[in-house]
Amino acid sequence: MENQVQTLTSYLWSRHLPVEPEELQRRARHLEKKFLENPDLSQTEEKLRGAVLHALRKTTYHWQELSYTEGLSLVYMAARLDGGFAAVSRAFHEIRARNPAFQPQTLMDFGSGTGSVTWAAHSIWGQSLREYMCVDRSAA
């Protein structure tokens, strides 16, 4: 399990955001212009399109959505829970130290992931929190 956690953590840190369609089109136009400026290459439209697509594939990050199975979900939780919980707990401790009278009654966690914000908030404010709203996107 430790190897899987390390592998997933490395993969998640190495990911880039997906390229927006407009940016991809801009890059394709730039490459096409670059290929057309080269007088040594006589390009048919089909060859030009193939060369542009080949260059785009080589130079553009290929983002893929993760498909979370039960096993991968457990590995994800093991990889991300402790760091997220520690960071949020530290922030909540600072809030409590600066304003001890602050007793939130509701919590909205957008992008709740592993639920570490909910756990950290409950560990700091306990019973004052009466309502939790956790929102995360799902492909399901």
From TrEMBL:
<keyword id="KW-0408">Iron</keyword>
<dbReference type="GO" id="GO:0005739">
    <property type="term" value="C:mitochondrion"/>
</dbReference>
<dbReference type="GO" id="GO:0005654">
    <property type="term" value="C:nucleoplasm"/>
</dbReference>
<dbReference type="GO" id="GO:0046872">
    <property type="term" value="F:metal ion binding"/>
</dbReference>
<keyword id="KW-0411">Iron-sulfur</keyword>
<dbReference type="Pfam" id="PF09243">
    <property type="entry name" value="Rsm22"/>
</dbReference>
<comment type="function">
    <text>Mitochondrial ribosome (mitoribosome) assembly factor. Binds at the interface of the head and body domains of the mitochondrial small ribosomal subunit (mt-SSU), occluding the mRNA channel and preventing compaction of the head domain towards the body. Probable inactive methyltransferase: retains the characteristic folding and ability to bind S-adenosyl-L-methionine, but it probably lost its methyltransferase activity.</text>
</comment>
<dbReference type="GO" id="GO:0051536">
    <property type="term" value="F:iron-sulfur cluster binding"/>
</dbReference>
<keyword id="KW-0496">Mitochondrion</keyword>
<dbReference type="InterPro" id="IPR052571">
    <property type="entry name" value="Mt_RNA_Methyltransferase"/>
</dbReference>
<dbReference type="GO" id="GO:0008168">
    <property type="term" value="F:methyltransferase activity"/>
</dbReference>
<protein>
    <submittedName>
        <fullName>Methyltransferase like 17</fullName>
    </submittedName>
</protein>
<dbReference type="InterPro" id="IPR015324">
    <property type="entry name" value="Ribosomal_Rsm22-like"/>
</dbReference>
<keyword id="KW-0809">Transit peptide</keyword>
<keyword id="KW-0479">Metal-binding</keyword>
<dbReference type="GO" id="GO:0006412">
    <property type="term" value="P:translation"/>
</dbReference>
